[in-house]
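Milestone 3.1: sequence recovery, worked example.
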């Protein structure tokens, strides 16, 4: 049975290869779920009768749940034992995946995705901590490289595998695929992984955790439901805004007055950490929000089959991996602030290219623009983690990593909600604007090319004309969202000037954060 205590240079760890394989399987399972469901969203939408903005709850509910449960994962592992928590996370994630596949309504699949996010939050940080423990210091770099490859398998294979499963079986299999992976990881962990000592005296600031979780949940409900219920004209939205404000106020007061609060406020006295939290929030908005937009663009506007959509989205992950390899060689030789600015500019460039897209854009254009955006992400993640944690004390890094991941996840969910709401609202506004120029007295409708297909004098012609107006309005709405993401990316560039050059890479804690 494996001893997963910290291994030194001369301390061999039995079954280390088996433990590593199980850890990698667990990480791949979690990483796949960040992108595998994206290409299946239109099919899920049709199956559960959801609107365009409602179906994105399938994405945001998972992200928010994972964001809420990531910070206390370390406390759970210390209090109940890392093996117990990790096995419970794998089992819960796998069962929740099966329930997602069996869901018959929007409410059910969103509820089960929340459950999936709650269990999946602990998989990556605990798996990473195991690898750092079972490998001696001189081999930890290789272990983290293997871990990084496992994390990047999700963005690369997720869209392709999701498209193939949806086309050849059904969208439900993008969730069922987790069953064999989860079963193997669970079985291997139960055999080869030894339990860590439990700290029965470990305490969690339950009030601070509850208030922060309530504020995040209320914020997400406010953003997800606002457009559908006409924002503050709805009593429900007013209530959610009130809960958000009260919970966040209580959280802030408690944080600055309690002796051992859930969030250490002194972390934000470090300039690099504070700026890094803003940066990773922007990264979350720019990356996952654009993925949420790309899926309906490819499948609804361009009419791509789900497999084709997955294939053209896959190279985005390849761009990220290649950029991360290059950045790994440049860190220490090039100022991390230069690398960060490069990543933001690459992301903004990709968004600018997408503002010129029409449904006639070529597949090659989609592929290379996706690779540019992926490369921008690769230039951001590692340098940003390095500079964020390079100036804070080592004893504060575990708390900092939880907040760092929380900011990224909240940024992702907020970004998806905002672009989805704007897409719906701008489509309606654009439709109204275009329709004002379409009258039966336009001489164009007398041309033979229009008199049969778009004639305003027949019911069929008016329906076809309205459909085309809606299509054009939707294209413009997508362009508006791409412009917004470009502006957000560019607006973050000046923050680079506020960062201090760090003294080092931050060691293993940085790897955990990333």
């Amino acid at each position: 049975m494996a001893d997963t205590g910290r291994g030194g240079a001369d301390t061999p760890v039995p079954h280390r290869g088996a433990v590593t394989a199980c850890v990698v399987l667990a990480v791949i399972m979690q990483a796949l779920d960040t992108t595998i469901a994206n290409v299946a969203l239109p099919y899920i939408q049709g199956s559960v009768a959801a609107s365009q903005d409602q179906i994105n709850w399938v994405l945001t509910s998972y992200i928010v749940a994972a964001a809420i449960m990531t910070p206390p994962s370390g406390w759970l592992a210390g209090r109940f034992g890392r093996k117990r928590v990790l096995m419970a996370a794998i089992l819960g994630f796998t069962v929740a995946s099966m329930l997602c596949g069996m869901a018959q309504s929007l409410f059910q699949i969103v509820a089960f995705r929340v459950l999936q996010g709650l269990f999946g939050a602990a998989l990556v940080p605990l798996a990473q901590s195991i690898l750092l423990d079972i490998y001696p210091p001189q081999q930890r770099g290789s272990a983290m490289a293997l871990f990084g490859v496992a994390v990047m398998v999700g963005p690369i294979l997720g869209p392709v595998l999701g498209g193939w499963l949806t086309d050849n079986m059904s969208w439900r299999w993008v969730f069922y695929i987790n069953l064999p992976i989860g079963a193997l990881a669970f079985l291997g962990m139960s055999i080869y992984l030894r339990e860590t000592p439990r700290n029965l005296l470990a305490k969690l600031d339950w009030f601070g955790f509850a208030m922060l979780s309530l504020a995040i949940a209320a914020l997400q409900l406010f953003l997800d439901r606002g457009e559908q219920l006409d924002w503050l004209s709805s009593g429900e939205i007013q209530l959610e805004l009130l809960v958000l404000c009260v919970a966040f106020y209580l959280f802030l007061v408690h944080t600055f007055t309690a002796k051992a609060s859930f969030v250490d406020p002194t972390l934000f006295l470090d300039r690099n950490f504070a700026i890094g939290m803003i940066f990773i929030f922007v990264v979350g908005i720019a990356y996952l929000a654009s993925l949420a937009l790309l899926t309906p663009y490819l499948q609804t506007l361009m009419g791509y089959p789900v497999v084709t959509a997955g294939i053209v989205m896959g190279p985005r992950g390849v761009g990220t991996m290649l950029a991360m390899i290059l950045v790994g060689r440049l860190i220490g030789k090039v100022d991390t602030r230069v690398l960060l600015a490069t990543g933001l500019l690459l992301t903004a460039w990709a968004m600018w290219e997408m503002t010129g897209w029409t449904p006639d854009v070529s597949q090659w254009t989609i592929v290379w623009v996706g690779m540019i955006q992926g490369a921008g992400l690769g230039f951001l993640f590692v340098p940003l983690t390095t500079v964020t944690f390079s100036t804070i004390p080592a004893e504060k890094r575990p708390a900092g990593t939880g907040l760092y991941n929380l900011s990224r996840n909240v940024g992702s969910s907020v970004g998806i909600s905002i672009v989805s709401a704007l897409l719906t609202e701008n489509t309606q506004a654009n439709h109204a604007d275009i329709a004002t120029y379409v009258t039966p007295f336009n001489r164009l409708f007398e041309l033979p090319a229009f008199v049969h297909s778009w004639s305003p004098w027949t019911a069929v012609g008016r329906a076809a004309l309205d459909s085309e107006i809606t299509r054009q309005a939707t294209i413009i709405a997508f362009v508006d969202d791409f412009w917004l993401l470009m502006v957000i990316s560019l607006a973050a560039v000046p923050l680079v000037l506020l960062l201090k050059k760090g003294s080092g890479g931050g060691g293993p804690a940085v790897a955990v954060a990333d």
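The chain has four domains: 1-193, 205-252, 263-417+481-514, 428-474. The chain has a mean pLDDT of 86.
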